[in-house]
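Appendix C reproduces, verbatim, an entry submitted by the partner laboratory led by Prof. M.T., so that reviewers can inspect both the input and the predicted structure.
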Amino acid sequence: MTTSDTTDITAAAVPAGSPPRLASVGRFARAYAKRPSGLVGLGILLVATILALCAPLFIGPEQLDVTKVDGPLLSAPGSGYLLGTDQAGRSVVDLLIWGSRSSLSIGVIATVLTMVLGSTIGLLAGHYPGKLGKALMHVTDWFIALPSLPLAISLAAVLGQGTASITIAIAVTSWTSTARLVRAQTLAVEARPFIERAKVLGAGNRQVMIRHVLPNVAPLILVSATLTVASAILSEATLTFLGLGDPTGVSWGSMLNAAFYQGAMTSGAWWYVGTPGIAILLVVLGFTLTGRAVEHVLNPRMVG
């Protein structure tokens, strides 16, 4: 085979004019598709997301209103109710699907706030390793030393019941690991020669952090985000179970709270106790599998 033939084959393999970012996305998608566990996790998340988004199309307010439903109380799964009913006669299937909207939205929003807060502190601490960086890491270490669950409970109690207070409490108690990871990666990136060249050419601190450091740290932030959503959903379920959520809303945590405090557990209504727990387990598993797959794709040197 001649050199010209090799060049033609290489040119044919990569479409002419293909944007570099689009090509990178294509490589990522092909590498991700080779990981079966990642596909399973992505499938679980797609099903959960579709059900949550489409819930208002087939579940009305009257099906969730305890004053309007007329189903049997704590009825076992049967032909009329696939997963049985709760203590007010509402369908557990409807509660599960509707509750996914609150649980997923709180988990995702809390994760976004966590990533923004942790990434900002990590970037600043890594770019300014002097007094500012040390001060920021002292604050980070202080938050790490505090037990996260009691701190989240205290914050949610001070802010009052509701989804907003739970979201803020989760974000405030979950950003430390992201900050430490981003700081370490920032220090590694800024030790590379191209950062020194950018500074010599006149790039300021803001330009170095946003245009040069952040794109190199972004894959780490993406992996951290996919894994943080899982812990955020667990934290939401815990805080809501403890009665700190919206008392008028429906979420998986509020279902567990109602099952515990309104007699479902003592009555042996396993279908009302177990189904929200299984739903939480599946969604957390989906995010964990997806995050691990993304981590393996972005870091092929990982074993397993």
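The mean pLDDT is 84. Additional entries are available on request from the coordinating office.
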